[in-house]
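Q: Structure for this?
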Amino acid sequence: MNTDRNAPIGVFDSGVGGLTVVREIMRNLPHERIVYFGDTARVPYGSKSKSTVLRYSRQIVRFLETQNVKAIVAACNTASALALDTIEKEVQLPILGVVKPGATVAVHTTRNKRVGVIATESTIHSHLYRTLIQAEDPEITVFGKACPLFVPLVEEGWTKDSITREVAGRYLGELLEKDIDTLIMGCTHYPLLRSLLREIVGEKVTLVNPAYETAQALKRMLSDMNLENQAPGGEPYRFYTSDAAEKFDAFAASILPCRVPAAEQIPIEEY
Amino acid sequence: MNTDRNAPIGVFDSGVGGLTVVREIMRNLPHERIVYFGDTARVPYGSKSKSTVLRYSRQIVRFLETQNVKAIVAACNTASALALDTIEKEVQLPILGVVKPGATVAVHTTRNKRVGVIATESTIHSHLYRTLIQAEDPEITVFGKACPLFVPLVEEGWTKDSITREVAGRYLGELLEKDIDTLIMGCTHYPLLRSLLREIVGEKVTLVNPAYETAQALKRMLSDMNLENQAPGGEPYRFYTSDAAEKFDAFAASILPCRVPAAEQIPIEEY
């Protein structure tokens, strides 16, 4: 445990996608300090196996522990789905993933008890969204769809593009046929496609953004544990990556609501 | 040096793409044994920095050395472009990349001295195709275009799809405007898009497949060095990966001309 209320929150992701979670934490918990790690040398996680994602996540958690964080947020759906159940038994710090907050909100959102989940291949195959949703309400049917092209399309910058719309139409078509009324955007990049996804699913389907829900869950957790920062200020945000940081910095500048310092590259395999 | 003529060739790639090179070696050098390593736990390389790709490639070369190979083929354009110049000074074995054979053929193919290269972002930014082509003929103009969506589209299986055709039309449009008469498919996945690329560029543009040219260059090199296998037979092909091997095996089965044994996962960071 780290009972220093003014210590930072550790946030990690396979790359840049977790910055959408950082953005929500910045907006909703403006007094909290953040240490972010993006595993840009080994990104993506979404097509990799459970044992590999677990090994990588453990190294990152060990690194964040050296930064004296008071809590950890796995801002990556794949890491949350494949590694968190094991890691939370191994570390002394409170640790939060993005899957559970997203699942809980979907349970409370759906009226017709038909929920869709779009995510990476590994997240879908883990069935964790389904498991958590049905643990809260066994009557809900969950339909998963892996969307492996969404991340590269976002990283290409084609977030409002006709090609992306066509890809999304194909991926979402089978979910819409199932008459879902709630759709979880179960990968950190997907909220960047929100307006395009909205066009395709129409107004009747509620889009759930686990990044926002995770920031809310983090707020409740810090409050419950008396861990809210009491002395904001100083150097609030630090960023680390495993590969060269230039592209990371450009992406961070494009999506974060404030200017942040340049990221520093660290040798993550050594942790 | 390893002067055992009957030793295997070591072939490596960031993942499954290098199997297109293996396929050409199998077809064109049927007596040679092959040890293949695919870095599926850290794939892709094409968006990563030179120092990271060099570190990964060094680990793989060390692993292949433990397999007593007689020569090494970097079957990955990105590794060939970013790491090979350094590694060939460090190892005692003959080592061949895919970039130089592809560049040489393009020099001899172009009539109007205007060559296009499509490849990953890192390969394009290295400018190695341009450097090698202009070293042979300074009058040739080389136009590069990074095509980051091609690999995920191939891995999605959409090799003959209307969406892929639209993406390819957009990527290749600017090269075609430059009046190229030769196009190098500078990433190991791209030959799997050959028929679709052919539709877009038309019959007047020659498509260069570095995988085929590399197999030819390997054949010449082994002959020049008296390293051709004299005792074919036994267990000719072995495959290793850094992540779980199931998906690798399925891809291998789909593109190789013969049945091969299942891949074995090894901890590449330890080399």
